Amino acid sequence: MAMVEDTRPEHTYAEQTPRSKSWIEQAKKVMPGGITANIKHFAPYPIVMKKGCGAFITDVDNHQYVDYLLAYGALMLGHGHPEVKQAIDEMFADSGTLLFGAPHPLEVTFGHEIQQLYPSMERLRYTNSGTEATLLAMRIAQAYTNKKRIAKFEGHYHGGYNDVLYSVSPTLSEAGPADAPIPVKESKGMHVTDGEEPLILPFNNLTACERLLRAQQDSIAAVMIEPLQGGFIPATDTFIAGLRELTEELGIVLIFDEVKTGFRIRLGGAQEWYGVSPDLTTLGKVIGAGFPFGIVGGRKDIMEVTSPTTGSDVFDQSQSTFSRAKDVVFHSGTYNGHPLILAAGLKTVDVLKRDIKDVFARTDMLKDELEALFVRKGVPMKAVGIGSIFSVVLTEEDIFNYRDLQASDLQTRKLIDLHLLNEGIYTKPLNRYSLSTAHTEREVERTISAYDRVLSRLFGG
């Protein structure tokens, strides 16, 4: 259905957010582009937030929004959950400090909890972010297999470092054939020798993946995959099961990057949903309860390559000729296994065990009502996703991969998102929707009403 009016929502946006605009201008004197993380930027300028409570955030102009970004999915209990705050207060009161720089009992308690939910994680290591987790998983796989190259999927994001910052959102003109994608650099400063780029695989195309991986099996250490691309485009059952069998046969480590999908698809992540056990798993976002946190875990024999008991520490000045630092994968970090974060994460798991079904039910309600509304307006749309994550995709076609998503009407989706910001519905334009335990039927109905107004404005009816 053709749009009946272009109301130029940028004008309303500018009128409603003058303090955000001023703040960003001031920030440009401190940070390049006024932003300390590129992902936070969007045109014409991002909204600057000052407060969060439950399902809502408030900007510096005192406008309140229903928050569906939730720090890119990290805040599955919403903002300022009282039980998490209590757990943090109690931890600080009991310990008398924020950090020890030494082992702490919660490292084991928390680890057992993760192993119960993710049985494939027979041994695990804590990191300070999801990006650090994927980087460590890659290093572990390379050390275990004694191979260097990584394979990743077109459209999948695993962090902002050179090894995997390829073909996340390439233009189709430079991406190559659909069944043999070309690695496309996504940043300046990537000086990688030809042949060392990651092998780019087509998502949900098992035949092509098998051909590409068999041809390169002697050089591929690991296949890293988001089981749901971007957290919302699911792998087919046949594809994910076939990829597991193939990597096992070829001696390639299979890494599930569940930074987005962990706890949001099921408590046990996408691997619980599919019934497939990867060799390594990375977690982040939800399990950090709003703090910077990540986990790498997997098969005992693979994870043991990080054990300091099998080799010396890089800082051990008494290394012998029989035990050297290079005998193990060195992994360290002052804040790894931060006790305050572990306490918050444990409480998050407790709450989700109790309330996660309500989050899934509320997400399904929002998806169903949105799809029904778009049908009434005569606008093609699919709410694509599983569990507590989905994205609004303007298309009549099924979505299986990055190229299918690119064929949808992204420009209209972006316009709708900007209108919705003016209506008090918050997510970064073109981003997925994440729900929390704080979202109720009231927020769902408020969102549907906002969508109704926006679609009526744009399409009539």
What is the topology, as strand order, of the major beta sheet?
4-12-11-10-7-5-6
- CATH architect. name of the largest domain: 3-Layer(aba) Sandwich
Q: Which sequence of SSEs, written as H and E, runs from N to C? A: HHEEEHHHEHEEHEEEHEHEEHHEEHHEEH
- What count of structural domains? 2
Choose one word for the global shape.
globular
Quick structural gist:
The protein is built from 14 helices and 16 strands.
What descriptive keywords fit this protein?
Aspartate Aminotransferase, domain 1; Aspartate Aminotransferase, domain 2; 4-stranded mixed beta sheet; 16 strands; 13% strand
Secondary structure blueprint with pairings:
Blueprint (H helix, E strand, L loop, with lengths): L8 H8 L1 H10 L21 E5 L2 E4 L4 E4 L2 H4 L8 H14 L9 H13 L5 E5 L2 H16 L3 E5 L45 E3 L4 H11 L3 E6 L2 E2 L3 E2 L2 H14 L2 E5 L11 H6 L5 E4 L10 E5 L1 H4 L35 H39 L4 E3 L4 E5 L8 H5 L3 H13 L2 E2 L6 E2 L6 H19 L2
Parallel strand pairs: 3-15, 5-6, 5-7, 7-10, 10-11
Antiparallel strand pairs: 1-2, 2-3, 4-12, 8-9, 11-12, 13-14, 14-16
What this model shows, in words?
With 461 residues, the chain is an alpha/beta fold. The protein is built from 14 helices and 16 strands. A hairpin with a 2-residue loop joins β1 and β2. α1 runs parallel beside α13 and α5 runs parallel beside α11. It folds into 2 domains: 176 residues, Aspartate Aminotransferase, domain 1, CATH 3.90.1150.10; 238 residues, Type I PLP-dependent aspartate aminotransferase-like (Major domain) (Aspartate Aminotransferase, domain 2). Strands 4-12-11-10-7-5-6 form a 7-stranded mixed beta sheet, sandwiched between helices. Strands 1-2-3-15 form a 4-stranded mixed beta sheet. The chain has a 3-stranded antiparallel beta sheet with strand order 13-14-16. The longest helix has 39 residues.
